[in-house]
């Protein structure tokens, strides 16, 4: 039952990328990318990291 709590963490990237007014701007430019694109690229990496964390936290122990 406690492992189900970890699945709520998967909502963070969903909400963060759907909240467009938060990142719909050009400045600041980060690594040559306007903030709008940089923010979305950043969430690709963060989403993979969050999925990995949820996987590690919710996987069943191996038999043996």
Describe this structure in words.
The protein has 64 residues and is mostly helical. Helix content is 62%, strand content 0%. The chain has helices at residues 4-7, 11-18, 20-23, 35-58. It is elongated.
Short description:
The protein is an all-alpha fold. It has four helices and no strands.
Give a topology summary.
Blueprint: H1 4-7, H2 11-18, H3 20-23, H4 35-58
Beta fraction? under 5%
Element order: H for helix, E for strand: HHHH
N-to-C CA distance: 23 Å
Question: What's the β-strand tally?
Answer: 0
The residue fraction in helices comes out at 55-70%
Task: Give the integer mean of the pLDDT values.
Answer: 89
How would you describe the shape? Answer: elongated
Q: What low-confidence regions span 5 or more consecutive residues with pLDDT below 50?
A: none
Number of helices: 4
Which structural traits does this protein have?
0% strand, mainly alpha, 4 helices, 64 residues
